[in-house]
């Protein structure tokens, strides 16, 4: 909150400000009356010179921009293709459309409000292309440059009869073709707004033609050999002029600035008391009108007891507005969170085949399609689930659900069956393409009408996912992929994850999990053929190979390819069980003391490198562990995952530095504690501390 109890209220400040302004204005009026006569001539001379230079620059800058654009268009492939296209052919109109699009793209960048560019071919039947459309040559003359009898064809300049437009023409001979470029510049843009005292004339250097909206100035220039007039400032025919030559278009521009302003001393002296009186009167009226709404708002807000006599009114109003804005933002965030939680609860009920209190009116008529996501490890799963959850919050009918068994389910709702399936499939393609190297797989169900079909769609997607080892390297599995596989093995993602986690932790129950999976697939009622049993054995081999890779214990002595190919499936399964049993026994007999020190070493590494963009892969390489096993060790021995610990350490360090220096810049602090983005730092700081870094620094300053 802002500091309360200031000595001067806002009303008192307004009175002081406007009285002060009135006195300052009056003082300047008196000073102007005393010094005006002395400096008026010098000021006029300086103003004339400055205005001439400014006006000249206003044209020069536009000519420079136009030259750059004309040079670009003269070498542009699209323009060259249009020039070479036969008139009336499809290429002629198609390339003309491309040229029009090029003009639309280029002209606004260079200031289309100040001039316009048009392109024409030499042939009479050719149309003229501008950023505003295409015209025949007669139409272009009538609509684009009104007030001209004809366009200068061979280069040069022209001025419309109403003196509103200056037309510049240049020709380019490109690969045997002639490109004529017209540029129209509003004459009004060549002078300062509201200043009609600037006079100018344009002289064609080849023909000697003079175009000027000022007839007196033009007549005076006719009496002079303008080619002998040098560039820059000079005196010509009683005029003080500035000449600029533009060889690109072959013309010269002459500017002059005549003013007859004089400040009689007596008039200024008489005006001084009038200025003082008007200043005081206007100041009083303005401050009264300004304070009226502020007073009303302040009195309304002060009725709740927060206001106090003598308090600056705007401080109270601003504090109330900031408080209301914070409440509004929080309500919006809570509303979004509530809606998301409601949708999650609703679709979890749907997946269990239960109705929901939050069911929408069209849930029974709409079409649904769902997909199950299967990342290969916990780190990939966390990242993927966060991305999916973030995307679902932006798309109204896309919902991401984590089921009771830990599976990630993406559900899309649509008015049509085709649109429902196609949208979800394309969404999965974009995400699985990003995670393809990590072995991510997804199983998508067909679309079905009504929320009651969701349990069946979920079961179908799980059946499709169970065939992932039968389908090679396919990323997105569909119902069509499992056609012909009537007897499916039972090896869901949840069972595989349970086996991997148990093995990585060295649990004695690992073999029991392995045996249960084998018994399930060996049951007579499942009726697995030899082909399916071979695929099941290959899946188990892949799981064990993954476990050994995570632990970095595979020394190359195990020929995994031989285990998966060429042997009877039950022999392969027995061999895999023996390998797993030996591994568990080896893990159990190993001394746990080897890892007693490792968390302290990891924390020391984080403390030494937290200001760098370190990741889990850096920690795993430092301690010669796989990223998966490194994460598992860090979690098990520290009680917190690596990312959370690193962020918390960085935020604690940032908190300490803010307390030492509350004036430190947020961007500087973010870089010093290891964040590559100030926005990311602010978001993480707010998540851990409940306030932004700026708000925390303000609290520290108030305490100090």
From TrEMBL:
<dbReference type="InterPro" id="IPR018060">
    <property type="entry name" value="HTH_AraC"/>
</dbReference>
<dbReference type="Pfam" id="PF12833">
    <property type="entry name" value="HTH_18"/>
</dbReference>
<dbReference type="InterPro" id="IPR020449">
    <property type="entry name" value="Tscrpt_reg_AraC-type_HTH"/>
</dbReference>
<keyword id="KW-0805">Transcription regulation</keyword>
<feature type="domain" description="HTH araC/xylS-type">
    <location>
        <begin position="600"/>
        <end position="699"/>
    </location>
</feature>
<dbReference type="InterPro" id="IPR018062">
    <property type="entry name" value="HTH_AraC-typ_CS"/>
</dbReference>
<feature type="transmembrane region" description="Helical">
    <location>
        <begin position="263"/>
        <end position="286"/>
    </location>
</feature>
<keyword id="KW-0238">DNA-binding</keyword>
<keyword id="KW-0472">Membrane</keyword>
<dbReference type="GO" id="GO:0003700">
    <property type="term" value="F:DNA-binding transcription factor activity"/>
</dbReference>
<dbReference type="GO" id="GO:0043565">
    <property type="term" value="F:sequence-specific DNA binding"/>
</dbReference>
<keyword id="KW-1133">Transmembrane helix</keyword>
<protein>
    <submittedName>
        <fullName>Helix-turn-helix transcriptional regulator</fullName>
    </submittedName>
</protein>
<dbReference type="InterPro" id="IPR009057">
    <property type="entry name" value="Homeodomain-like_sf"/>
</dbReference>
<feature type="transmembrane region" description="Helical">
    <location>
        <begin position="12"/>
        <end position="35"/>
    </location>
</feature>
<keyword id="KW-0812">Transmembrane</keyword>
<keyword id="KW-0804">Transcription</keyword>
């Amino acid at each position: 909150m802002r500091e309360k109890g200031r000595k001067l209220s806002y009303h008192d400040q307004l009175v002081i400000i406007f009285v002060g302004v009135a006195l300052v204005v009056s003082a300047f009026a008196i000073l102007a009356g005393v010094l005006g006569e002395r400096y008026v001539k010098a000021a006029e001379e300086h103003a004339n010179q400055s205005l001439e230079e400014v006006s000249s620059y206003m044209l020069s800058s536009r000519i420079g921009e136009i030259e750059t654009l004309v040079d670009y268009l003269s070498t542009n492939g699209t323009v060259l293709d249009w020039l070479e296209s036969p008139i009336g052919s499809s290429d002629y109109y198609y390339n003309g459309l491309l040229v029009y699009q090029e003009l639309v793209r280029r002209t606004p960048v260079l200031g289309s409000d100040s001039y316009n560019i048009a392109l024409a071919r030499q042939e009479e039947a050719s149309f003229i292309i501008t950023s505003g459309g295409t015209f025949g040559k007669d139409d272009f003359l009538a609509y684009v440059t009104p007030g001209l009898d004809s366009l200068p064809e061979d280069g040069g300049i022209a001025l419309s009869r109403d003196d509103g437009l200056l037309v510049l023409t240049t020709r380019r001979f490109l690969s045997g073709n002639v490109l004529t470029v017209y540029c129209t510049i509003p004459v009004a843009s060549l002078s300062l707004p509201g200043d009609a005292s600037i006079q100018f004339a344009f002289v064609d250097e080849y023909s000697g033609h003079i175009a000027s909206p000022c007839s007196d100035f033009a007549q005076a220039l006719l009496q002079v050999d303008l080619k002998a007039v040098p560039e820059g400032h000079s005196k010509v025919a009683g005029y003080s002029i500035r000449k600029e030559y533009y060889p690109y278009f072959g013309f010269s521009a002459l500017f002059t600035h005549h003013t007859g302003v004089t400040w009689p001393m007596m008039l200024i002296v008489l005006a001084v008391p009038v200025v003082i009186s008007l200043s005081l009167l206007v100041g009083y009226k303005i401050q009264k009108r300004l304070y009226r709404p502020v007073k009303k708002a302040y009195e309304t807000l002060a009725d709740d007891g927060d206001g106090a006599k003598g308090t600056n009114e705007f401080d109270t109003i601003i504090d109330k507005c900031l408080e209301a804005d914070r409440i509004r933002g929080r309500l919006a965030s809570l509303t979004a969170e509530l809606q998301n939680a409601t949708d999650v609860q609703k679709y979890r009920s749907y997946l269990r085949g239960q109705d929901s209190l939050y069911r929408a009116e069209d849930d029974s008529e709409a079409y649904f399609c769902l997909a199950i996501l299967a990342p290969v490890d916990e780190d990939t799963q966390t990242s993927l689930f966060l991305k999916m959850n973030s995307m679902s919050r932006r798309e109204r009918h896309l919902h991401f659900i984590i089921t009771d068994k830990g599976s990630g389910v993406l559900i899309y709702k649509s008015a049509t069956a085709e649109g429902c399936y196609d949208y979800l499939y394309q969404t999965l393609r974009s995400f699985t393409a990003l995670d393809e190297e990590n072995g991510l797989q997804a199983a998508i169900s067909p679309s079905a009408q009504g929320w009651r079909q969701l349990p069946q769609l979920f079961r179908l997607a799980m059946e499709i996912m169970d065939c992932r080892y039968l389908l090679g390297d396919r990323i997105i599995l569909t119902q069509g992929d499992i056609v012909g596989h009537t007897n499916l093995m039972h090896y869901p993602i949840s069972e595989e994850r349970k086996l991997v986690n148990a093995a990585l932790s060295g649990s004695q129950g690992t073999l029991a999990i392995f045996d249960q999976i084998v018994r399930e697939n060996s049951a007579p009622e499942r009726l697995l053929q030899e082909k399916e049993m071979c695929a099941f054995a290959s899946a188990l081999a892949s799981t064990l190979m993954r476990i050994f890779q995570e632990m970095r214990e595979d020394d190359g002595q195990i020929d995994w390819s031989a285990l998966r190919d060429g042997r009877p499936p039950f022999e392969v399964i027995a061999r895999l069980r023996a390998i797993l049993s030996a591994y568990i026994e080896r893990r159990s007999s190993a001394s746990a003391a080897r890892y007693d020190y490792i968390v302290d070493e990891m924390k020391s590494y984080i403390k030494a490198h937290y200001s760098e963009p370190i990741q889990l892969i850096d920690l795993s390489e430092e301690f010669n562990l796989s990223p998966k096993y490194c994460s598992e060790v860090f979690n098990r021995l520290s009680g917190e995952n690596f990312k959370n610990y690193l962020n918390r350490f960085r935020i604690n360090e940032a908190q300490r530095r803010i307390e030492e220096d509350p004036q430190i810049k947020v961007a500087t602090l973010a870089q010093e504690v290891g964040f590559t983005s100030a926005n990311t730092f602010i978001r993480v700081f707010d998540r851990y501390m409940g306030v932004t870094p700026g708000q925390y620094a303000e609290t520290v300053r108030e305490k100090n």
